[in-house]
Amino acid sequence: MPRMFRRTIFWLLPVVIVPLCVLVVMQYRFLRSLETNQASAHRNWMRTAVEDISRDIESYYRGAATRALAVPPDALADASRLSAHFTANPVLGAKSYFTVRYFEGSAMYQMFDRWGVETLTNEDELQAVKLATVSWHVVHKHGTAVQSPALGVDERDSANRVILRPVTGPKGKVIAVAGVVLDPKLTLAAMTNIAKQRLGKPRDVVLLISDRFPPMPHGRDFVTHSLAFVFADWRAGIRGVCLSPEEIAAAQFKMNSLYTGGVSTILFGAVFLALQATSRHMRLSQMKSDFVSNVSHELRTPLASIRVFGEYMRLGRVEKPEKVREYGEYIENESRRLTQLINNILDFSKIESAEKKYKFCETDVAALVSETVSAFAMPLREHGVAVSFHPAVAPLPLLPLDRDAMAQVLMNLLDNAVKYSGDVKEIDVALSVAEGFVRIAIRDRGIGIPAAEQKKIFEKFYRVGSGLVHDVKGSGLGLAIVTHVVRAHGGRVEVASMPGSGSTFTIVLPQPPEAKVAPAAHPTSEKTEFA
User: Fold this and answer.
1) How far apart are CA 524 and CA 174, in angstroms?
2) CA–CA separation, 406 vs 428, rounded Å?
3) Contact 334, 302 (CB under 8 A)
4) Which tens digit of pLDDT belongs to each residue from 405-461?
5) Which of 35, 318, 388, 489 is 20 to 30 A from 522, comparing alpha carbons?
6) Is the dihedral of CA 449, 453, 457, 458 positive or negative?
């Protein structure tokens, strides 16, 4: 089996493990490259985003102002038409709208609030409007024709930014000027909304639009771009919330590395479990092979003995009555061994298929143990083993047991004690009752069991990895049947052992709350020896 396992490892190494390792290395290198590129990509994204924001703001205000200031010449004298026009074509951030009509030697100013309602002239706004429109007044006086009137911006008064457009009459002469006065606070809010529509809801950047910016922490990127058309002294800026692009990339690298590490761990774990399953399957196959070999040996040995003794008796070579009785005992003993082995195999088959049934009845445990030890007297004499039976000091209760199944458990434990007794062929069987449990302890002074093997010996086909153990043949089913039967009775099997000092197997059975005391048909405190 070790050779087969090594061959399996050798096969899995190039096919599974090496590609996995290569994949992990390649993934690590890719993540490192991604970390470097991600920082550059993030910075480029910030630069592109702020340029797009600036263009979006310019595009909006050019378009909105063009629509709002395209005043029909015939509407200049009609305040209601002007109000309806400005209301239908609003400009976000507008403080007021105005028109200036030119006459021979004079000008007439009309002001409308941002809701399109004609209002009284505000002195500050009026001064800003006059300052912005003075050049068009000159153009009107000279009668200069204007082809394709364009938007103009006047930002000399920072509190009243003016966008204006001339209104031309016949032959392209300027007859009036229409305009809008922007409020910085309202315009800032409008520009911020436009920018947010472009950015969406980024979690790692902050947008700023201002004519001045606070100092940034060391290592933090801050990308800005000047606004065009109106509020040209302002800039739109994007900065990281708390991390630089390099720090963001490093954080992403760590997160991706954790994901990759988790997946790699799962993959390697799957390979490890596959190897374990393969090893277990091979070990189980070896156990089954040993089981067949051991059972074959176990069957051949008693059959050979029965055949030899039977032939002696059939051919009349045994004449003395004591010899006939001795040979008969041998035949009976070997038959009992065969019966026990076959019963173990059949019971194990029933246990595996969940067909094992138990018939519980009130049983005198002391009588059951005494009778089982007495029935085992012949193999004990054959192997020169001395058994001491120690009944309980106090009367034992009657327990609900399957008598045949529990007898088989005792036979299996006694058979193991005989097989592994070594040079000191002494076995003690003791009964006791305490704290609501009845205990049946079977102790030998043989080779013992290592601590690491004591839980595994109850597994099917398992045999302790010791040369002394493998010198003794067995099916590997006895203890598996023992633990199943005892558990079916609500109990447990305890083992205490040290290599070279023997082993003690204890069957612990629960005592029913109102159990009857067994009749004193057997001695309760006298030691009985079988040799």
Assistant:
1) 133
2) 18
3) yes
4) 888 888 888 888 888 877 778 888 999 988 889 999 999 888 888 888 878 887 776
5) 489
6) positive
Q: What is the 3-state secondary structure (H, E, C) of 16-49?
A: HHHHHHHHHHHHHHHHHHHHHHHHHHHHHHHHHH
CB-based burial label for 423 (10 Å; 0-12, 13-18, 19+): exposed
Q: Which two tokens stand for residue 437?
A: 């449990």
First to last CA, the chain: 42
pLDDT tens-digit readout, 181-197: 999 999 999 998 988 88
Q: What pLDDT does 467 receive?
A: 47
Q: Which residues pair with 9 in a beta bridge?
A: none
Domain segments of the chain: what residues? Answer: 2-63+245-285, 69-187, 360-530
Q: Is the pTM of this model over 0.70?
A: no
Which residue in the block uniquely carries the two structure tokens 């990509």?
41
Which pair of tokens denotes residue 496?
């205490």
Tokens of 517: 């005391």
Report which of 173, 220, 180, 189 is spatially closest to residue 57, judged by C-alpha positions.
189
Q: Which residues contact 2 (CB under 8 A, 6 or more apart)?
A: none
Please provide the size of the chain in residues: 531
- CB-count burial class (<10 Å; 0-12, 13-18, 19+) for 203: exposed
* DSSP SS3 for 176: strand
CATH fold of 69-187 reads Beta-Lactamase (3.30.450)
Question: Measured between alpha carbons, how far is 275 from 394 in angstroms, rounded to an integer?
Answer: 54
- The answer to whether the Cα torsion of 59, 60, 61, 64 is positive or negative is positive
